[in-house]
Task: structure prediction
Amino acid sequence: MGVSRGEQRFERITVTLVPTADERSYQHIPTTFSPTSRRYGWKHFEAGDYMIVPRKISSSEIKVDLFIDLQKKRKMHGSDLQKVVQQLVESKIETEWQGMKLAGIGRATVAAAPQEVVRRGTIEEILGATIER
Result:
């Protein structure tokens, strides 16, 4: 996990994935949640760091917010940032997120990443429950 980044703001992009397999594919919902610290953490990739926070899980689609902290602090154009996100997501689909297909990448917005400890009833704790239909 990465270092706390305080009140810093990051690029937030909503990524939509579509399950391609049966319901067992929901066991590997993209997230950077740590059950030990009960927080969302940062992971590293070649262009910088990222944090993944699930937003919606249903039988037809999975939406996650992808927070990006780029190594190069220069302002990227929206299309450049979307290409970086697409490369990251496609590499994860090939390795960790099998059973998923990329359906869409939203526009980048500036937002603060979640900082507080996540309490009971988080989406990660109910993933084993019945999936919304």
